[in-house]
């Protein structure tokens, strides 16, 4: 039997992605949005779609989306900008609750 050559396993690089909310004039145009990123959610009633796109080419993509005829406005998600360390908030809330209990 031939010996099996060991191939080098390349690491999986996770690209940074960001949420983009695209508000449309009608529901018909939302099918075309899959060209620009991964369509995660589409609302027929509110006429908006949620896309996830790579963070690298965000500025070019936003200008392309705004130029489409059926697009009303484009918003970028801000979850990366928020502080996701909630331990301090919990500690402050616990102190406030303890102070209220002591007052009673």
The main sheet orders its strands as 2-3-1-4
Distance between the termini: 82 Å
Biggest β-sheet strands, sense, barrel: 4 strands, antiparallel
Number of domains: 1
Residues in β-strands, percent: 25-35%
The CATH homologous superfamily is termed Lrp/AsnC effector binding domain/regulation of amino acid metabolism (RAM) domain
Globally, the shape reads flat
Q: Output the structural class.
A: alpha+beta
Succession of helices and strands: EEEHEH
Helix coverage percent = 25-40%
Named CATH topology: Alpha-Beta Plaits
In short, what is this structure?
Its main location: cytoplasm. The chain is an alpha+beta fold.
Please describe what this structure looks like.
The mean pLDDT is 87. It is flat and about 70 Å long. 26% of the residues lie in helices and 26% in strands. The protein has one domain: Lrp/AsnC effector binding domain/regulation of amino acid metabolism (RAM) domain (Alpha-Beta Plaits), CATH 3.30.70. It is of the alpha+beta class. It contains two helices and four strands; from the N terminus they run βββαβα. The termini are far apart. The protein has a four-stranded antiparallel β-sheet, with helices on one face. β2 and β3 form a beta hairpin. It holds the Pfam family DUF2129. Its main location: cytoplasm. InterPro entries: DUF2129. This is UPF0298 protein YdgE. It comes from Lactococcus lactis subsp. lactis (strain IL1403) (Streptococcus lactis).
